[in-house]
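ugh ok fine here u go
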Amino acid sequence: RREIQLLGYSNDFVIYDQDDSKLLVKNVIRELQLDEKSFVPKAVHAQISRAKNQMISPELMANTVDGFLDEKISEIYTQYQNSLKGNNALDFDDLLLKPLELFLDNPNRLEYYQNQYQYVLVDEYQDTNKPQFEFIQALSREHRDVCVVGDDDQSIYSWRGADVNNILNFSDIFGEAQIIKLEQNYRSTKTILECAWAVVSRNTSRAEKKLWTKNKQGSKLILLECRDERDESWKILKIIRDETIQGDFGFDDIVILYRTNAQSRAVEDVLRREGIPYEIVGGVKFYARKEVKDILAYLRLIVNPSDGISFDRIVNFPARGIGKTTLEKIHKLANDNDYTYLRVLGELDMLPVGAKQKKALQKFNQLIHKYRMAYKDQGAAFITRDLIADIDLQNYYENQNTQEALERWGNVQELLNSITDFQDHRDENSLREFLEEVSLLTDIDRWNESDKSVTLMTIHSAKGLEFPVVLVAGLEEGLFPLGPQSYEVEEMEEERRLFYVAVTRAQVKVYLSYANARRRFGGYPMPTVQSRFIHELPEELVSVETVTESGYSEKIYSKPAETRTSSSDEFAIGDYVGHKLFGKGKILAVEGAGGTAKLTILFSGNVRKKIIAKYANLIQLQTP
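structure:
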């Protein structure tokens, strides 16, 4: 603020938050007369932010465009930056970039700040991005008195622009440096540290170090094998009860960690029903999330056409061109004639709006009417699945091309799982009953105002925290590690660091759980493959426990076979195998020999596939 007039801004500039910035992008898209469906404002804003994090200026982007879409994004970026300056405003990314621009254009001001700040200390250095690195280097270029603190094994924010190489290459960049390894750990048991190191030490991009502690050896990590996510939630519940009622811990000593927010739903349902107080940290309780409430609003309006709150929420979601003015006219006509909002849509001749708005409202009315005619006779999950397809919600979220939008789509799928789960386990299981239960449970959920509650959070949110008891849920390929098995090395190494962070949150006990099948998009539970991170743990430090109503039974842990290129010689009729797409299956027939042999496999859900052995990449399983 003190120096910005040198860049053509005035010192009383304003800072635009994320919402302000997205709105400005939206205005630019309209000014350029571009289609908002092709250039989704939120997605374009994310692309601009990524470019800024990589220090790609509008000019540089303009010189490297490839194709129509890139060219238009470049135009939006240029106009967006011009509009920011015209408004005497900076966005969050500019707060990092403008000092660098200032130093580049005004060497005397850089020299002034180099002299003023003769020592530079940076905490959490593994989380710095490119502009932050350049800023630190600029300030310390002359005196080179730089001290950074960080742990490359806890670098888990590459998706936000962080570059682990900043800390790994510190000595190469800043010259000769004294490295002080802070390897003593005061939090965890020896067993917990040994297990965490066994996994993270497989990474190739890491500084050589190994944590040690004077703490006691501690108990083994406990691995829970579950049938599906519902079984996993009930087993987590039993552990919580045992650790609090029979053990030495309180509710606030326990944290449940998961890779994605959508995983909390199944656990939340069980904790609510059983009266266990819990708190979501760094997130919103499942049924309070916007994308979940949007679908619930559709379902409520289908069941209750008089629900004006739900109508207002969804009449323009996804966007149909129904603006505030049109909505006000619907309200007025409804109030003047004592109509419901939906009835107004049946009397569009009386509504003073344009032809485009009338057409959109008519289509919306037909959509709701279609499902009002069907919801009493068809299952709640069937209705919801068709509705989501009708409003093309998957494309709506995926076209935004942001991590947040994909998380929201994951939560929509998890809502469908919740409805399917409700339908499968209730006698009274209509759409009306489901909406009733969600409303009642959400209200009951507010009774507990005490801090003595179980904590639920993503692993990213848990960084820097500690708990006596840690439960890590969902250790399956595709979930944790997240994504397909054909990972880039860098992505897989970050997932491994995330596992390291999860386990080292624990002071005393660690529980790991995985499901043999997990429901996807409201369908049948799909077979899963156990996470590779479980395979990487030392066998002697892991105890496999089967939790039943009568108690625990322990069995010896042994690692499943590693993934490898398959040939028919490795498999026989009757063998159980895992496949990254189809899940678990049983070999029914083997035709031919060697790599070209054909294996007939019956996968879960009665799915029968014939696969050529050498392309199968099957995992041999020791148990069904």
